[in-house]
Amino acid sequence: MHEAPATPGTERRAGRLSDRLTLSAKRVLWAWLFLAVPVVFYGAIRFWPTAEAFWISFTDWNLLRPAQFVGLDNYRRLLADPLFWKVFANTFLYLILGTPVSLVLSFAIAYHLDRVRFLHGFLRALYFLPFLTTAVAMAWVWRYFFQPVPIGPINNLLASLGLPAQPFLRSTLQALPTILVPAVWAGMGFQIIIFLAGLRAIPTSYYEAARIDGLSERAILWRITLPLLKPTLVFLVVFASIGFLRIFDYVYNMNTNDPGGPLDSTKPLVIMIYQTAFKSYDVGYASAQTVVLFLILLAISLLQLRLMRQPT
Amino acid sequence: MRMSKRIAGNSFTKKLLAGAAFGIGLTLAGQAGAVEIEYWQYIFDTRVKAMDQLIGKFQAANPDIKVKQTTFPYADYQTKVSAAVAAGNGPDVVQLFYGWLDGFVAAKLIQPLPKDVFPGAAIEADFFPIVSAMKRGEDYYGLPTAVRSLALFYNKKLLADAGLDPNTPPKTLDDLVTMAEKTVKRDGAGNITSEGFALDMAGQDHQWWREVLVRQFGGAPYAEGDRKVTYGDAAGAKALAFYTDLQLKQKVGQLGFMDEAQAAFKAGKATFTIDGTFRLGAFSAIKGFEWGVAELPANAQGVRSNYASYFANAITAKAEGEKKAAAAKFLAYLSSPEAMEVWLKVVGELPARRAVALTDANLANPIHGPFLAGLTNAHTTMFVDEAAQRQITMDMVNRVLLQGQSPADAVAAAATAEQALIDRVTKK
């Protein structure tokens, strides 16, 4: 903060403190007074526990015993734990599959929705609705859709068409994409709204000029729309990536009997952290996992800042 | 009242007044000093109701003790207990799963039961032997009001539909397989539409496999106080093959069918399922649903086994002096025959005292009888981390069912993984 130098003209008798401050200094003081509330709040409930987690990751705390310093043991154990690498791969699989699929789908919908005039508001609300719904409730509904015969609607449909029933959540190969379906579907509402805003922000004069020049719709899309949407795209890519890296509720609720299963094929890092901390009470080890997740998210956020700073 | 009128300089009145004030002071002290102790358990409707009744009866008999019951959702229970006791705020009497004992003792959350109120010899003479899971060295750290065991639930209508006698449940494993084969229903494509036997490793089947099937196929799940895994042998593989064959070979059930075994059974879409006493409430609540309970099937040689578990009540380390005495009194009441009868009636869990449990009336009861019979040959697994050990057993079955691994390889891998887990936890 800039401290304004005391102006010589404001000499006064040594009076109250507020009298001795310049107007701009007072402003700064007030600003900090108001800022202090969120700063203290975040400091106490966000940053302090975060710092604490770093410390706990170097101990063997299990909630019951006083914590003992164990150095890098938890990190060594993490690197040697095959489950960690499996979970690490799963986490990135959610990211690599989820982000492009959800962005391509929501862009396609937003692109076409932008041109629809008939029932535009209604359709937009319809797409946004899943975003407002509780993830847990949605996960359970989708879990029911993917059940085997005789209760799962999808498998019942397959059976009535004479097609073989699919294991979906009970298959080590199909389970992860199956869980991504509701996760992508629920996130799409938000992405569509942001894409729509981005599309509307592009001046129509560009399009008019392009049409006068006789550019095809395809060329307009690739040469005008997409390049000008870059800030929106970068924002959504980062936002979606962080969301998929932290995926928990869909995985947990679509398979509550074996969260992250079968055979850890759907387990993301966050579920591993949860189970280590609150099922096995191995809080030190769980904190080490949290620190790793934190570093991954930090790296991705920094990458975002870099990309955003580049001129578009 | 009379005294106030006579307040004068007279020394007699003064003495009387002083005496009265002393007396009033004493009664006030007596009221304020009614020892208040706190009792914690997790939220489960019937358990909370039963405890309210017990506290009412206990307070009526002991007007100088007040008991306050506090409950938490099961998911947070253990975390809250450890955090509160560590901060010195927690309960005086606490309910804990027998499998948590080592953690609670190591953390000094609970103290040994006073031997004058709870003599070890009396406990061993009166209670089912499974309470030994609460003993460390010479000390008992807690006592249960009620215990749970497993039994085979069967759907009478599905048996009758298949032309079987609805009142003759299977006695042996072979009977179980035959009857499951006769009652399973499939559609044209071979998809199961009603199970013969509901498989659910995440439910109670992992206990059935570990403590019952492994023994029935000639093995032993553990040795050295359950610190050494011994099921990774041919007997363990045979026990696993028996279980996985139900889906792969006889095709009488399918893991994940209707999501959970209990859901399939409740919906009338499974002939048999293995479950515990705690499920009785959910099944009895369904109108017109005709089901029965039988003791877990024996093997061909008549070997039977069962898995029993319980929540015990213990005195926390925080209770001292008169609170400790009050806590001991309350705990003694919770482990009394009277309390056990209330618990059986309200919650449906079996009394932990042999004399209260094994009455002719209870044994003849078509529901409680089979569970009680199971108690006499029951084992309690001394888990170090129940969730993680269950996961290993679930993964073992999934490797056979989903990845086609041989039962021998799967059981060996599970034994190695579980041994590593036990070693890591107990080393600390």
Automatic annotation (TrEMBL), chain A:
> Which protein are we looking at?
Sugar ABC transporter permease
Q: Which GO terms describe its cellular component?
A: plasma membrane
Question: Where primarily located?
Answer: membrane
**In terms of domain of life, where is this protein from?**
Bacteria
Coiled coil located at which positions? none
Protein family membership: Belongs to the binding-protein-dependent transport system permease family.
Q: Where in the cell is it found?
A: Cell membrane
Q: Which residues form the ABC transmembrane type-1 domain?
A: 88-304
Keyword entries, A-Z: Cell membrane, Membrane, Transmembrane, Transmembrane helix, Transport
* Membrane disposition: Multi-pass membrane protein
GO BP field: transmembrane transport
For this UniProt entry, which segments traverse the membrane?
A: 28-48, 92-113, 125-145, 179-199, 220-248, 283-303
Specify the taxonomic lineage.
Bacteria, Pseudomonadati, Pseudomonadota, Alphaproteobacteria, Rhodospirillales
